[in-house]
Amino acid sequence: MLHLRSLAIFAALAWMQTAAALEVGGIRFDDKIRLDAASADLVANGGGFRTRFFIKVYAAVLYLPEKKSSAAEVLTLPGAKRMLLHVVRDGLSGKQMADAMTDALMNNLSASEQQSLKARVDEFRALMTAQPDSRSGTLVSLDYLPNTGTVLSVGGLPKGAPIAGEDLYRGLLKIWLGEHPVEASLKKELLGAR
């Protein structure tokens, strides 16, 4: 009897963990993550697909220290953050990703922001361009660590040195959350709308 009760409790807990995970088009993402030993847990704020000409390119999930429902709140929220991209299209080159991200970034920055971030945007662009063609299932993460800066990782491995400045990361988030996001529906989903 005790054995059956233990199994029932274990099954209920397993179901609760499964139910809490975020799913985007059949791709499961952790509902909580930790970037490093010094940072607190981050929660999945929302997620959705980036599509281009009706073709899914990647599933994106935004992780924050606490859930936020407006872009302004996210952009001013202090602390560690992660934008996680799960590529769903084979053959996407680092240059294609760099071009798309840089174009979207520039569409969301003022002239003064473009000027102050230029050298660091060029550094980020070079890191992205240097990446090999991605395959479906490749994970690309853009992390912000307050005492480190922006860290680009591909397949769980950091690429290049961290790039300093929370202003750069805030700018990168505007790719998806700015006034002119890469996709309006994805912006809503990253902010928790379903």
Q: How many helices does DSSP assign?
A: 6
What is the first-to-last residue Cα distance?
42 Å
Q: Topology as H/E string?
A: HEEEEEHEHHEEEHH
Strand segment tally: 9
Return the average pLDDT rounded to an integer. Answer: 88
The first-level CATH class name? Alpha Beta
Low-confidence stretches: 1-19
Approximately how much beta-strand content do the residues carry? 25-35%
How would you describe this protein?
The chain is α+β, with helices and mostly antiparallel strands and 194 residues long. It has one domain: Chalcone isomerase (3-Layer(bba) Sandwich). It is built from 6 helices and 9 strands. Strands 3-4-5-6-7-8-9 form a 7-stranded antiparallel beta sheet. A two-stranded antiparallel ribbon has the order 1-2. Helix 3 packs antiparallel against helix 4. The longest helix is centred in the N-terminal third of the chain and has 19 residues. The chain is globular and about 40 Å long. The N terminus is likely disordered.
